[in-house]
């Protein structure tokens, strides 16, 4: 996916003026957070589970190579093949090689953010392999040459009419010539079309929510069932996933599964939680003949042991973006790359460079809502602040900000000067005010373009307090 | 060939203490965790006596949009299945290989019963399961030589026979059952499905629609055993 | 000793952390805080070398400046058993100081000591002083905005509401999403003004829909933001810091209202 993170501000402005996007974002705000709150209230152990999930992830991260090796051993013992990819290029190459080895023309794909991260679809297409997205949302996006704006609800930015248009344009060749705006009919249409693809595909590619070291299995968590058909019907099943997804045992995975759906969609459990272990057994009647797992690093090992290590706990539930007022205002595309919202604001600078993604960790009020809902308790605001520190150290912070800060600090470090500055600002602002407020303030148009600046009350607190102390002392002297 | 592997593992290893003693301790922790596979925390709702778990399973599965009914015997359940198919005008059923199911008189109700993997266009399938998990009304179903996974996904209706003795409280209880089964079959099955309600999507405007790519209905027949 | 105060020497001391916005914009909030603390039986002092908590530098990634300012604050407030401020955000910042000094154990210890003694005003009154003597009258309906830092870093939620419950004549009408950020975010509101505007617009809608005629909160930054937006939109809701109502100090015009 092309990188548009440097244009975050412009992207955001466009998004704020996009009425249909704003309507779609309204649906999100009213949906997931409310459902999550209900699901959480129904499970009294939820907060305890969050603590344990955080601790278990920390344990895994401090033994990551050992768990990955265990996974590899058990996966291989069950007939699977494990491929290690240090970066996106290696992963793409490995996938293409597997596709070519079976002469694949089309591949079906379950939803996978990693495949977005490595820009897999474009790559496969360029090399003569046609990928078909099978998740309904992803499929709609593929028809529109669009990209996900959310990690679990990829087409959240679209409205019904957009879907109708896309299907009406692309489905006549399957016999659907009437345009419909009935959501149920649209889904039935997609179901019919997709079945043809499921059966025709040579290779099925899915992501994985977790890898189980104990059994060498991968698991996908979905509601539609597309991932299951993707990984069951073709001859070859490729799992594209990243190294931090490994968990020790099935029991350990259960801990995360209890948190995942509730945090994500507010469901008690997703409809399909499916473990795949190796290829079909010799006596099985269906299932793939080959099972490959691509383990992608792509910068993650650099995070281990760094101040960003906590981010590796992320289970991609999307709760942070569902609850984020900035995401809720501008949507996912404004972030300009694969991962949006608070988790993206921490992860993206790592993956594409803070020089490119510098806006993301800055575009936050640090309201802390994300951290308060994160199932693995990632301190997202703190990690965003660490990115700001890196930017500051590397002089990537805009010079106006640096100068302003320098000037302000010069006063803040000198109480007497500070008193004077506070007094002057108080005086000046009062001079500029009419009816208790200032409607235009030359140096703060960012503020006054949108709202008034309330005028200060007369005189600073410190000055008045001093006077009060003095007069009390005088009175004391008189008595 | 696997340069990526060595590169990644070396980077990961560099981040932790690999002195002899520390390395040995780390390996032991990992080995023990895997060997013991102890539950971390089972919520209270995953615990209870048989009657409680049965009731909870019914409630949670129903909430997850599955149809649940209770039957005295498997024969009675099969009769109910045939009635339901007939009422909806469904004339074919694909199933796993199960002697008793084959012996049932489907033909008299105009239903053709076949044992095979599912195909596009199938209307209904009937499968057994390994466990019913009360905490979320979830079915655990495993693939096997005569139990193809496609049966759970391609037909419009997925019918599941669940014995009351198969109902457990938590996911952890179900893993225990799976491990017992693995001991008999020689290892993990290719596929373990955990299914909670029927297929759905909310990808269009956040509005829930049933029957996305998997079955439009999940119908669970619980056979009471004592 | 100032003779006008007839306190017994046993009165515990509280140092008031005024905060820069209260100092410059709304000294009345500072005096309201003093009044409340005195009513609760404390003797209030205002360390004269205080300036700002350092949050602008901290949130801009300038750790060195933040540390300089933190040292200054630690020095200024070292000798007091309690440090109280009418802002969850600034007091929250004081609670961040220990993490700044990970490599300076002596300072870290001092920072930790400060953090354990630093309280947001309403939580101090409620949780520490267990103050029952609110002596105020407010004839009107109010709605309460939970400012983010106070709420999520310090757990300020019930305290202001419990205290407001003692105010005669006051009726509380909760707004929808009282816990959602107002879009102020310090420098955020000028760095990303249009996003901030969207957020504050959502907020003013909820405020208006609550039907209350006064908005209260515990952080002046957020209150200036919301008051400014309400004024710009012509929504007739008065905005005040909660301390003004609790101290019965509403004789001055509300935030952004004209002086008469
Ligand atoms: S950062 Fe936390 S809340 Fe956000 S997606 Fe990851 S796990 Fe979920």
From TrEMBL, chain A:
The keyword Lipid biosynthesis appears for this protein: no
Segments forming a coiled coil: none
InterPro entries: 4Fe4S_Fe-S-bd, 4Fe4S_Fe_S_CS, FTHF_cligase-like_sf, Helical_ferredxn, LUD_dom, LutB/LldF, NagB/RpiA_transferase-like
rRNA-binding found in the keyword field: no
Database matches in PROSITE patterns: 4FE4S_FER_1, 4FE4S_FER_2
Residue ranges of the region described as Disordered: 458-479
Pfam entry (one): LUD_dom
Chain ranges passing through the membrane: none
Domain 4Fe-4S ferredoxin-type residue range list: 305-335
UniProt keyword terms in alphabetical order: 4Fe-4S, Electron transport, Iron, Iron-sulfur, Metal-binding, Repeat, Transport
Protein name (record): (Fe-S)-binding protein
Species of provenance: Pokkaliibacter plantistimulans
Record lineage: Bacteria, Pseudomonadati, Pseudomonadota, Gammaproteobacteria, Oceanospirillales
Automatic annotation (TrEMBL), chain B:
InterPro entries: FTHF_cligase-like_sf, LUD_dom, NagB/RpiA_transferase-like
UniProt organism field: Pokkaliibacter plantistimulans
Domain LUD stretches: 51-223
PANTHER family named in the record: LACTATE UTILIZATION PROTEIN C (PTHR43682)
Name of the protein: LUD domain-containing protein
Pfam families recorded: LUD_dom
Highest taxon, organism lineage: Bacteria
UniProtKB/TrEMBL annotation, chain C:
Occurrences of domain Cysteine-rich (ranges): 14-94, 142-226
A Pfam family it matches: CCG
Name of protein: Fe-S oxidoreductase
Organism of derivation: Pokkaliibacter plantistimulans
